[in-house]
């Protein structure tokens, strides 16, 4: 299974989702490939936001080695599932889809709910982590 997690800048939510899903999949002995990307190009080549890194670390997950990258059309070919964090990310990725097969791969991580962007509020990183963790656990239930 190959999963791509997507948010706006690939520094807060999608690196957390990448790290959480990777951690949970390994705990279950699954040989899944998890990555993350962003729809915006502001942080390409940078590591995750320090607040995301710290929050993940507090839960025993190391995301410090991740490098931010931009979503690319070829990701539709490589990944089985593309999970996005909010409706803006959903619209951006669906706008790049070439066909129905591409569109079928794209879903909101939390079903019909969004994962809010914690970038402007330090206090939101822990609640966002917990939301993402819950979403990842739901995906694993359906494996």
Proportion of residues in extended strands: 5-15%
Kindly state the percentage of residues in helix. Answer: 40-55%
Q: How many E-type strands?
A: 4
State the order of secondary-structure elements, H for helix, E for strand. Answer: EHEHHEHHEH
- Which geometry do the CA atoms define? globular
Q: What is the mean pLDDT?
A: 97
What profile does the largest beta sheet have?
A: 4 strands, parallel
Low-confidence stretches: none
Q: What value does the Rg take, in angstroms?
A: 14 Å
Task: Kindly describe this structure.
- With 143 residues, the protein is an alpha/beta fold.
- Helix content is 42%, strand content 13%.
- The chain contains 6 helices and 4 strands.
- It has a 4-stranded parallel beta sheet with strand order 2-1-3-4, with helices on both faces.
- Helix 1 packs across helix 6.
- The longest helix has 17 residues.
- The radius of gyration is 14 Å and the shape is globular.
What is the structure about, briefly put?
This protein is of the alpha/beta class. It has helices at 13-27, 50-58, 75-78, 87-96, 100-104, 125-141, and strands at residues 2-7, 33-38, 81-84, 106-108.
Please describe the topology of this protein:
Blueprint: E1 2-7, H1 13-27, E2 33-38, H2 50-58, H3 75-78, E3 81-84, H4 87-96, H5 100-104, E4 106-108, H6 125-141
Parallel strand pairs: 1-2, 1-3, 3-4
Helix pairs in contact: 1-6
Key phrases:
single chain; 143 residues; alpha/beta; four-stranded parallel sheet; 6 helices; 4 strands; globular
